[in-house]
Amino acid sequence: MAEKIAESGESRRRSPSITLSEWLRSQIDNEAYWFHRIELAPNLITPGWSDPKAYKLPHYGLPEDMTDMRVLDLGCAEGFFSFEAERRGAREVIAIDAFPDSVRRFNVCRNALGSKATVFLCSVYDLDPQKFGTFDLILFYGVLYHLRNPMLALERILSVCTGAMLLQTATYEVPGMAETPLAKFHPLGLASGPPDEPTWDPTVFWMPNVACVRAMVAHTGFQGIETLSTDPKISVVIRARSPIQARGQAPDQTTAPWS
């Protein structure tokens, strides 16, 4: 037995070492799916089908200077906007996603980039100021139409927002009804994903028009609602502020619900 153990140890010592870049490439290749394209190192980009740097970042209203902001990234996927907020000076970034695979891929990118952003596996409905604290800026990109209860989600977002929210969502416009708040319900989902290879997405439920998005945000209690973009490729981007304006704060661990 001792001889076998010695042989095993000798084999390990003789096995070729790999570089950090090779190890990182192996982590990327181990994932069957990527949504975001993210540059993790020179000549190393995740193979996501969505390129947010090229097609989303110029339109989504992210402030150039995010110095000292506490930021919440909802439905973060692999974390492109979390890492971009950090790069622009955010003092703390909290990200959440409801899919375990997204959280795992987020952490691959986080480790590669040396990021301090923190990701949690949870739902937007779980938001609570006692658990998550409050935020200067909340990124609510590409999530609204995936929710069965979008109004409840907006209420939970408002509960942790003491600054502003940036919201992007797919929309559905009815000709001649642009001024009337309307939404189309998809009970079984619809085709989504890469334009050249769409697949059926059962998590798409509500497709509101722009007037409906603004009305829902206003009904929840947000103020100062601005439409930043209605580019057909982007659908709609809206900025709104909380009626309470204060510096975002981390939760007080001594008074949290689990204490």
Verbal overview:
By secondary structure, the protein is of the alpha/beta class. It has one domain: Vaccinia Virus protein VP39 (Rossmann fold), CATH 3.40.50. The protein has helices spanning 2-14, 20-29, 52-55, 80-87, 100-113, 129-132, 150-159, 210-220, and strands at residues 39-41, 44-45, 70-74, 92-97, 118-121, 135-141, 161-169, 183-185, 190-192, 199-201, 206-208, 223-229, 236-241. The strands form four sheets. The protein has a seven-stranded mixed beta sheet, with helices on both faces. Strands 1-2 form a two-stranded antiparallel sheet. The protein has a two-stranded antiparallel sheet with strand order 8-11. A hairpin with a 6-residue loop joins β9 and β10.
Short description:
The protein is α/β, with parallel strands linked by helices. The protein contains eight helices and 13 strands. It has a seven-stranded mixed β-sheet, sandwiched between helices.
